[in-house]
Every structure is written in C-alpha cells, then in structure tokens.
Amino acid sequence: MEKRPGYLSQDAMERLHEGSLRLLENKGVVFQSEAACELFRRNGARVDGETAYIPRALVEACLKQVPPAFKLTAVNDRRSVTVGEGLAIHPAGGEVFILTADGQRREGVLRDYANFQKVYQSCDNIDMTGYQPGYASDKPPGIRGLCCLKETMAYTDKPWLAPMDYVGGKEKERIMDMYGVVLGDGFLKDNYVTWNVVCPESPLKYDRKSCESMISFSEYNQPTALVSAPMSGITSPVFPYASVLLQNTEALAGICLVQLIKPGIPVLPSASLTYGNLKLATWECACPDSALMLSAAVQMYREFYKLPARAQTGVTSSKSIDYQAGFETMQSLLLTALMGVNVTSQSVGTLENLLTVSLEKTLIDDEIISRVRRIASGFDTSEEALGIKIIEDTPHGKDFLTHDSTLDHYKEGWSESISDWNRYEHWARLPERDIVPRAAAKVQEIIDSAPVLLSVGAIGDLDRYISKCSL
C-alpha cells in the first residue's frame, strides 16, 4: 500500500483521473436543468432524465479548452491579478457570525461587512476583496448581496469578487448588473472581473440554481469557480483518496458544462474537501486529513490537468484567536501553498469551521500569509548568494555585520507586521502586550482612516439600482 504524505505519485494521479472518467461515463452526474442536459445531449453525452453520462472524449475535449491562467481585472488595473501564476489570496466567505474584539460572538451586519473591506484594502497580502465575510443580517435577502457589493466597490480598488449568496437566475443577473453600473456593460464583455461560485451537492449532483448561475455568468463572459466540498464518511466515502476521487469527478463534470456553454471561458476548480468527524457527526476543516486531501486535489489540478487551482485553506476549528487557531491556520495554508495553489479561499480571519470571522484575526492572518509566501518562494541559490568569497575574505571567528554584502542587503529580509520581536524589556512596556488587542487597535485605525474610493455619482447610481431591486 502506497502512502506518500502530501504528495501523489504519477500512478496515483492517473488512477484518480481514470476513476473519474469511469464514474462520469457509467454512473453519470445529475444536472437539474433542462438547458444543461440539452447541452450535454447535443454534444454526444447520453442523458436519461436529469442524469448526464459524459464520455471520455467529451471530457478530454473540454479540458483542452480551459485556459491555464486568466487575468482578474480590478478597477485599478495595477491591482489586477493573474490567476494561475503565483499565489493570490481572497477573503473569507459564508460565515454567519462575527467575533468582536472583546470576544463576543454575534450575527454580522452590513457595517461589519464594510469594515472587512476596509481591512482587506489595507492588507498587503490580500489580493482580492468582496465575497461575503460575515452575514449582513440587517438587510433583506433579496438585496443583501447587492448591498454588500456596493460596500466592496466603495472601499476597495482590488478585484471585486461577487457575494456568496446561494441564489440563481435573476439574483445572479442583478449582481452582474451592479458591475455594469460602475464599469459599463462593454467592460464586462471584454474583461473578467469576478467569478461565479458553484457548489455541487455531493455526491454527483448540480442543482437547478447552480446550473442557472453557471449559464448566466458564462453568458456575461465571467468565469466559474467550482467548489466541490465532499465530507469523508458523510457525503463521500470514508477514505480520503476516495473523497479526492469524488471531488475530482464533480469538478470535471462542472468544467464540461461551462465549456459547453462558452468554450474557452476560464474555470477555477477548488479543493474544498473536508474530513467528516464521525464522532460528532460534523465536518472538520482543520483536521490533518483535510489538509492532505486539499493538497492532493491541488496537485491534480496543477500537475495533472495544468489548470489554475483554488483551495479552501488557512482554516481552523478554534472558537477564539488562540494557539490552536494559529497552528491550524498555518497547517493547511502552508501545505497547499507548497503544493502550488494559485488562489486561496477562507484563508483570512475565519474561525469555528467557517462559521465565524474576525477582523483581528484577518490582520494576524495577513502576516501568516506573508510568512507562507516567504517560505514558498525559497531562497536565492545564485553564485553571489553562495557567498564563498565573502566567507574567504572574513577572518576566522569574526562577524559579518559590517561586511559590504550585509550593508547592501540587510533591508531585504522578511519582517513581521503584527508579531512582536522586541526584547522582553521593551515588550513589557507596550500598552498592548498580546497580539489580539494589538491587532484590534490597528484594525480600528484602519477603519477610522479608510477613504471612500468610489465617486459620489457612482454611489448614487448604485443606490438607485438597489432601491429599484428592492421594490
């Protein structure tokens, strides 16, 4: 029996691929959409009711059409991100509760959402904004996502990810209309500005709203992120390898549908597998098994299929910002980064298995991500960096503090942003010794000084559009 921690052999990847092709062709995938089923039927798949049996040739043809990278365009083009090259971080999404600076857990409101956008804008290691950290419980469901998107547009100039409302049809179209209000409809036709998050129902089912949103966003020329999230022993077999197989199969099915709708449009498959905690009948995102499954899925996307890869990583089960939160966050974030993940999800500020989000942890996680980026980048192995001449020129037992190479390069080293590296005597005199209150003070500074980046006219246009939608 082969066991390779954090890494799949070529044979293990090929067996996953062949297993997925077998399931797609023989068991099929449910698509609760006549339009989706008709697309499969017209392209050579056998369709029985809502089940499409997808042949190998169609899967392979669709995979060839997916671009290995694409540009996610920001309103400030200097902030645009090329997805598929390097590591990009996007914010939390789907959490219901907010952990306040004084340790209270409550439902989120729109003001919290706006504050998260201000913090995202200020963090050097967060590349995208929007999505849906917290839950704007003070806004009606029909316009909640629109109100959130307006706050994103007002306070950030990084790429704006669409809210994570699990809706389809008209609601998704309204989200795209909001982008059109600010950027112009013509801009959307020629640029990728967001993506549609689709979560299939494991095992092997895409519901009506998922199919509708895939069709709608593709017609707007916007990519789809496929977030298959099977739970081992609950919505997938108990074996981690089998869970990776199921997730891979669902991702390939979604890729096929998107490519049949609009050939060549980007698709971003996401590793979002979790360990089923059968002792408590819950799912566990911070288990080492979850980290291993994530890394295996990322490897399949990056190495085997040559696709960009997203992963739900940097997660924790801790209910507070404590030692557990730190090591669990680092555990999956570092492993997936070393496996070459291109986009991370849930990697900043999340707690309690994605139920809760914290502004203070967001700022702390920004430093964790900076550490991970530094580790993943490796170090210089050039002839100059080997330093033989430097060592030869320095007397035995002497230091290198005043050597020209030290003076030339000492500012290039990594440095902390929220951690404390001072001597004890200095630390003991600090007004905030612990990292959480230190982060809370910095968060408040960011919120108080954050400028509105959208014009008064554009904000008025958005308000009028949201008012029309609320009628």
Can you describe this structure?
The chain has 471 residues and is α/β, with parallel strands linked by helices. The protein folds into three domains: 53 residues, no CATH class; 314 residues, Trimethylamine methyltransferase-like (TIM Barrel), CATH 3.20.20.480; 30 residues, no CATH class. Strands 6-18-17-14-13-11 form a six-stranded parallel beta sheet. The protein has a four-stranded mixed beta sheet with strand order 2-3-1-12. Strands 8-7-20-19 form a four-stranded mixed beta sheet. Helix 12 packs across helix 17. The radius of gyration is 23 Å and the shape is globular. The protein starts with 9 loop residues before the first helix and ends with a helix.
Task: Write a brief caption for the model.
By secondary structure, the chain is an alpha/beta fold. It has helices at 10-26, 34-42, 56-65, 110-122, 141-155, 170-183, 185-190, 208-219, 240-261, 288-304, 323-338, 359-377, 383-386, 388-393, 404-409, 424-428, 435-449, 456-469; strands spanning 29-31, 46-48, 51-53, 70-72, 81-83, 88-89, 97-99, 105-107, 129-130, 160-161, 196-198, 205-206, 224-228, 267-271, 275-277, 282-284, 310-312, 343-345, 350-351, 356-357.
